[in-house]
């Protein structure tokens, strides 16, 4: 008799009022395998995971764990049954040590009833050795990298003998080296006989790590395939229900005069002597490895962060530093890297978020009525095709792609001349990526200047007219679109010698 799958979901349903989040959630995860779960934002992946994690209860369908019918009513029940979810951004107790975080709520005690700190530390050392990582068990969790925080969550899961680990977009904020370490740990857990679900929008990672892939679309199960017997094109077609022939729909645009001129911008220890120009009608890509200083440059240009030397000019006029309002008046807009923490008021509605940057302009006698706000917001929500039932829909409930569209709408509503956009498609599905790329291309064609920061080389090469490459706080190369390749961009990002333009 064949061994039962670690997890079996079949035709699971979940609705929130009239909104159907999951029509037929179906996945079967075997012990000793890594199973990819992919789909566009809004496909139902998160709802499915939350049912397994005990955050939601299903309305219908089959839910089995190791062959037994289950229906969790809390996360504690799910964890006790051997389920662990590793999120993109773990939530550890910052003031507690690594060891205390791993054993929170279940500390071993001595025969005298005291917490056995020696036994805890010994177990953590054993766990880290088993996972092949080096982290000080006694250091506070505060200040740990996202990658190390994820390792701590994995160690906690292993110590609880979890048979099913779900990794939800775990690599979005990791460097290449950190991703490889995470993958090595995932493979070792698979080889121990655990079942893993890996959720990602990065197909290279899915094909590198996973054994099987399940595709979802519009809350429904579409297909399951062996990784060895499918392709990126086939998965993309299953995800979007159509052929995505142009992920990077680059439109021809006439290059105009200089709009943004940055000269000699310096912030000691962060970036140095940053000089570049963005013209009307062009998309300038800012590439480099994580930590190269790209986001910090954008924040300084927009006036969020300070700098000690250099200047920022818009249309020839100096933009005062450390003054975002002055930057906005000059025609600059910044779409930040972290849309949830820096771009949105997640508990506010779609309409309120979109009009946040133009409320002063909308005010009549110091007041903004709901009608005025909704008219302005509706125009931009429609233009960016934000998929939301109503303008009062809370932003936190939107998919990642729709959250990004709301942030874009908020800043485009200010009618900027230059758009600074940091990681425009991070965590966004392939279909929405194409929509965002098309929008950026249209904006450039209409005469806007765009500085696009991206860690995804295909995005930089597919969308940028020129590529500026940063390494350790300096621009090491400026490469024209016609000659830009993955090789010369990566060379400039990893070598101190300047590459030829």
TrEMBL record:
<dbReference type="Pfam" id="PF00005">
    <property type="entry name" value="ABC_tran"/>
</dbReference>
<protein>
    <submittedName>
        <fullName>Sugar ABC transporter ATP-binding protein</fullName>
    </submittedName>
</protein>
<dbReference type="GO" id="GO:0005886">
    <property type="term" value="C:plasma membrane"/>
</dbReference>
<feature type="domain" description="ABC transporter">
    <location>
        <begin position="7"/>
        <end position="243"/>
    </location>
</feature>
<dbReference type="GO" id="GO:0005524">
    <property type="term" value="F:ATP binding"/>
</dbReference>
<dbReference type="InterPro" id="IPR003593">
    <property type="entry name" value="AAA+_ATPase"/>
</dbReference>
<keyword id="KW-1003">Cell membrane</keyword>
<keyword id="KW-1278">Translocase</keyword>
<keyword id="KW-0813">Transport</keyword>
<dbReference type="InterPro" id="IPR027417">
    <property type="entry name" value="P-loop_NTPase"/>
</dbReference>
<keyword id="KW-0677">Repeat</keyword>
<keyword id="KW-0547">Nucleotide-binding</keyword>
<keyword id="KW-0067">ATP-binding</keyword>
<dbReference type="InterPro" id="IPR050107">
    <property type="entry name" value="ABC_carbohydrate_import_ATPase"/>
</dbReference>
<keyword id="KW-0472">Membrane</keyword>
<keyword id="KW-0762">Sugar transport</keyword>
<dbReference type="InterPro" id="IPR003439">
    <property type="entry name" value="ABC_transporter-like_ATP-bd"/>
</dbReference>
<dbReference type="InterPro" id="IPR017871">
    <property type="entry name" value="ABC_transporter-like_CS"/>
</dbReference>
<feature type="domain" description="ABC transporter">
    <location>
        <begin position="254"/>
        <end position="497"/>
    </location>
</feature>
<dbReference type="GO" id="GO:0016887">
    <property type="term" value="F:ATP hydrolysis activity"/>
</dbReference>
